[in-house]
């Protein structure tokens, strides 16, 4: 494994661990200040501005989501969603100066209210190198069932 | 409870029996008596701009589609080949080409449903097969009509016309379209499809339920308020927070809103967001003034509404250009589709704001809707226990004031729920639609 691939792989595994552990605020710190979190709704979605998305969240909206997930009266988080994910097939799609685009595949198992749910798809991370290590400029999630009828998605994917 | 029992006894002026939400036999009767009779929303004209374009929909249990013919006409047809019964169109939206061709044996049909050709025709010579017999064409839904581009259909051959059915709630569709400088709207920007694991009526009741927001949505209201406090002091609340935080208004605020119910179960509630003075709204208003003049523009903007209900199939939100379509699938399962519309002739930012509203408030992945879905689910589960037999509709009962074609009340009144059950009881006691 090349140095860069090993580096970004370690970053993605760390990120997955924070999300599985519901350590939202540490996860939020992984983003650049103008970083975006985007899950398109369709396979051919042209952009996130003129088309609805499953998620299109800047720092403000990500912060609101993290806060809500910890609210005592978040009824749909009684009990909270538990998750375990595997990130694999990691590949460096492009690398230029301090910006690298990383593709990966994820499987995510969720459990809440006696029910398991399987989610899966592709992650595409645009990472920027900073003084503190890699930071996420864009995390794009393409769920395989994004065009289907959805049950609610509350936590970060 | 046996559904054969007197249905009228299940609905009283200020309470309903729990079985109307939980009894599968009553759900079956609803399919026949409500969805077999009422005008049900199929789709919007703009979803099928070109010849051969189709859009699928459900009328009760019936899989139907509307399709654009080469002459521009729209036809609402059952999604069933008259040959062996195969469904003809597969995607929610698509283009069928010049003819609708069955994927099984290749029978093909014109866009009005009429039989165009069958392969190896000679084999039918001398048989009872007859091109002119409608049994060999795609069956048309008995009645279809459209109002300002919104296409509805009814499975009943007879009954009141669409405008009569809509009654006073036409004003919500009118205002929806009038807000476009060109007087027309179009579906754009994708559709969310969401499961609710609860009876369809629970959602309909919630759409104009003003005493739930501050309780159901406490988590997202608190989160939005905390976020606002964390921002540099003194700035205006960002739109994205405002539309979440609005649910936290106190009871006095909601009680001052206008609540209006019309015959057939339709209703609307007054707008919860203040008359807009932000740059996006002001630019929109300028385009309206250019199109309509000052006086007419004021007339249009004076009508400020939150959710309207077109019972039993859809709910427009006129000020954020949204239409939610409600499809009962089973007694405990409901499909909701959330469409966003573009106001023709309005600045692009107006549409982009509607996209933000859909994402942030009404998507299955928003911070708001999951708490709704959770409480509907809990209601559906709780109603199945032996902990009680009735659901209360008592808030401000007996104080509805009659207006032409309906009733009006204070904003916290449960008038819309009583109004829906008034229509429900009428449909259910009238027998099957077809």
Short key terms for the protein model shown above:
A: alpha+beta; Nuclear Transport Factor 2, Chain: A; six-stranded mixed beta sheet; 3 helices; B: 434 residues; alpha+beta; Rieske Iron-sulfur Protein; Naphthalene 1,2-dioxygenase Alpha Subunit, Chain A, domain 1; 2 domains; four-stranded antiparallel beta sheet
* First-to-last CA distance of chain A: 26 Å
**Total strand count of chain B, please?**
22
Kindly provide the radius of gyration of chain B, computed on alpha-carbon positions and rounded to a whole number of angstroms: 23 Å
The quaternary state of the protein chains shown equals: heterodimer
- Percentage of residues in helical conformation of chain B: 25-40%
What does this structure look like?
The complex is a heterodimer of chains A (157) and B (434). With 157 residues, chain A is of the alpha+beta class. Chain A has one domain: Nuclear Transport Factor 2, Chain: A, CATH 3.10.450. Helices cover 22% and strands 45% of the residues of chain A. Chain A has helices at 3-20, 24-28, 59-69, and strands at residues 31-40, 53-57, 82-96, 99-112, 115-130, 133-143. Chain A has a six-stranded mixed sheet with strand order 2-1-6-5-4-3. In chain A, a hairpin with a 2-residue loop joins strand 4 (99-112) and strand 5. The model of chain A has no long low-confidence stretch (mean pLDDT 97). Chain B has 434 residues and is of the alpha+beta class. Chain B folds into two domains: 40-148, Rieske Iron-sulfur Protein (3-layer Sandwich), CATH 2.102.10.10; 168-429, Naphthalene 1,2-dioxygenase Alpha Subunit, Chain A, domain 1. Helix content of chain B is 31%, strand content 25%. Chain B is built from 14 helices and 22 strands. Chain B has helices at residues 19-22, 24-33, 162-166, 170-178, 200-207, 213-216, 218-230, 239-245, 251-255, 279-292, 294-302, 348-362, 369-383, 415-429, and strands at 11-12, 15-17, 40-44, 53-59, 62-68, 74-78, 93-95, 100-101, 108-109, 115-117, 143-147, 150-154, 185-196, 259-262, 267-270, 305-309, 314-317, 322-330, 333-343, 390-392, 401-403, 406-409. In chain B, strands 16-15-14-22-21 form a five-stranded antiparallel sheet, covered by helices on one side. In chain B, helix 10 (279-292) packs across helix 11. The radius of gyration of chain B is 23 Å and the shape is globular. Chain B starts with 10 loop residues before the first strand and ends in a 5-residue tail after the last helix. Chain A binds chain B through residues 39, 41-42, 45, 49-56, 60-61, 63-65, 67-68, 71, 73-78, 148-154, and chain B through 188-195, 216, 218-220, 222-224, 226-227, 230, 238, 240-241, 244, 335, 338, 340, 348, 351-352, 355, 358-360, 363-365, 367, 369-371, 373-375, 378.
């Amino acid at each position: 494994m090349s140095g860069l691939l090993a580096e970004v792989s370690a970053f993605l595994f760390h990120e997955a661990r924070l999300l599985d552990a519901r350590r939202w605020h540490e996860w939020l710190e992984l983003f650049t200040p103008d970083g975006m979190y985007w899950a398109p709704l369709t396979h051919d979605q042209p952009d996130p501005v003129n088309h609805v998305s499953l998620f299109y969240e800047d720092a403000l909206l990500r912060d609101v989501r993290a806060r809500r997930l910890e609210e005592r009266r978040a009824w749909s988080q009684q009990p909270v969603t538990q998750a375990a994910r595997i990130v694999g097939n990691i590949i460096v799609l492009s690398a230029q100066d301090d910006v690298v685009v990383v593709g990966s595949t994820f499987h995510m198992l969720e459990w809440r209210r006696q029910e398991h749910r399987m989610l899966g798809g592709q992650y595409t991370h645009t990472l920027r190198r900073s003084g503190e290590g890699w930071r996420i400029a864009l995390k794009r999630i393409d769920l395989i069932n994004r065009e289907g009828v959805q049950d609610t998605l509350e936590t970060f994917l | 409870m046996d559904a054969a029992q007197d249905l009228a006894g299940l609905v009283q002026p200020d309470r309903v029996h729990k079985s109307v939400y939980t009894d599968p036999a009553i759900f079956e009767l609803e399919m026949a008596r409500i969805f077999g009779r009422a005008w049900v929303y199929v789709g919007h004209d703009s979803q099928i701009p070109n010849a051969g374009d189709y859009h699928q929909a459900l009328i009760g249990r019936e899989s139907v589609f509307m399709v654009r013919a080469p002459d521009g006409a729209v036809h609402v047809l059952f999604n069933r080949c008259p040959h062996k019964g195969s469904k003809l169109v597969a995607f929610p939206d698509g283009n069928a080409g010049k003819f609708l061709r069955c994927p099984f044996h290749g029978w093909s049909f014109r866009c009005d449903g009429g039989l165009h050709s069958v392969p190896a025709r000679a084999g039918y010579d001398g048989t009872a097969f007859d091109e002119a017999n409608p049994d060999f064409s795609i069956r048309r839904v008995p009645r279809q009509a459209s109002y300002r581009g919104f296409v509805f259909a009814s499975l009943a051959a007879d009954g009141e016309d669409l405008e009569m059915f809509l009654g006073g709630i036409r004003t919500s569709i009118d205002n929806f379209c009038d807000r476009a400088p060109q007087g027309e709207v179009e579906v754009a920007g994708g559709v969310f499809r969401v499961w609710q694991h609860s009876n369809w009526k629970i959602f309909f009741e919630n759409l104009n339920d003003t005493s739930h927001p501050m309780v159901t949505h406490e988590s997202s209201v608190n989160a939005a308020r905390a976020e606002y406090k964390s921002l540099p002091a003194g700035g205006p609340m960002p739109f994205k927070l405002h539309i979440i935080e609005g649910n936290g208004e106190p009871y006095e605020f909601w009680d001052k809103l206008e609540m209006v119910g019309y015959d057939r179960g339709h209703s609307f509630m007054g707008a919860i967001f203040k008359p807009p003075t932000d740059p996006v709204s002001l630019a929109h208003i300028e385009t309206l003034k250019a199109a309509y003049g000052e006086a007419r523009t004021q007339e249009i903007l004076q009508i400020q509404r939150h959710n309207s209900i077109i019972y039993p199939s859809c709910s427009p939100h006129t000020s954020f250009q949204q239409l939610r379509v409600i499809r009962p699938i089973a007694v405990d399962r409901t499909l909701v589709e959330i469409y966003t519309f573009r106001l023709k002739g309005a600045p692009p930012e107006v549409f982009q704001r509607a996209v933000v509203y859909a994402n942030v408030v009404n998507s299955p992945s928003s911070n708001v809707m999951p708490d709704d879905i959770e409480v509907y689910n809990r209601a559906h589960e709780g109603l199945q226990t032996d902990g009680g037999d009735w659901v209360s509709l008592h808030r401000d009962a007996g104080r509805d004031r009659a207006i032409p074609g309906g009733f009006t009340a204070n904003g916290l009144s449960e008038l819309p729920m009583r109004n829906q059950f008034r229509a429900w009881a009428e449909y259910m006691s009238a027998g099957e639609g077809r």
